[in-house]
Amino acid sequence: MNVIDYLRQHIRTVPDWPSPGVQFRDITPLLQNPRVFRVLIDQFVHRYMAPDLRPDVVAGIDARGFILGAVIAYELNIGFVPIRKKGKLPFATVSEEYELEYGSATVEIHTDAVGPGDTVLLIDDLIATGGTMMAGKRLLEKLGASVVEGAAIVDLPELGGSQMLRESGLPLFTLVDFAGH
Q1: Cis amide leading into 55 (omega within 30)
Q2: Least C-beta-crowded within 10 Å: which of 112, 139, 145, 149?
Q3: Could you report the per-residue pLDDT of 95-132, keeping only the tens digit for each?
């Protein structure tokens, strides 16, 4: 079995959550098993050890991006910065609003999290509509950093987020897609 299939079999599908018709892709089984978690993290770490992709810092999107991003940053021996939901960071912040299916939300980052010329790996668990990752990219760029790549475990391409992100110029790396599943 290849690595992607191995990881896919450890992603739980929860039907009709949080609403009828939604097939929720739950990554917690990937995190619960130490062997599976190591295989998952190694996929990212080995990719970003490459000199042309090696970032200065990893930015993780609230909340599951924190889990992945912190471990990847540790393994790469680089810093980690959180991109949080509005009102959760204690220091001076910049914010970015983005659209959700029903309304909008805002994410923030500390003003000293990254600086001009820093290269950043932006990571989250899943790409659906792409709004959160796009907001994260804009935040990092407001501070003068450049995003080397956006990364996630799961891509749900039918929701259009990965296409929108790529069209915006953000290179993407995802491990498992659930197109048509």
Answers
A1: no
A2: 112
A3: 999 987 777 999 999 999 999 999 999 999 999 999 99
Q: What CATH number is associated with residue 71?
A: 3.40.50.2020
Per-residue pLDDT tens for 26-85? 999 999 999 999 999 999 999 999 999 999 999 999 999 999 999 999 999 999 999 999
- Distance between CA atoms of residues 83 and 81, nearest Å: 7
Can you tell me the distance from the alpha carbon of 86 to that of 101, in angstroms, rounded to the nearest whole number?
Answer: 18
Distance separating alpha carbons of residues 154 and 139, to the nearest angstrom: 22
Residue 23 falls within a domain, yes or no? no
Closest CA to 64 of 140, 139, 154, 135: 154
Is 119:148 a contact under the CB 8 Å cutoff?
yes
In a domain, 108, yes or no: yes
pTM of the model: 0.95
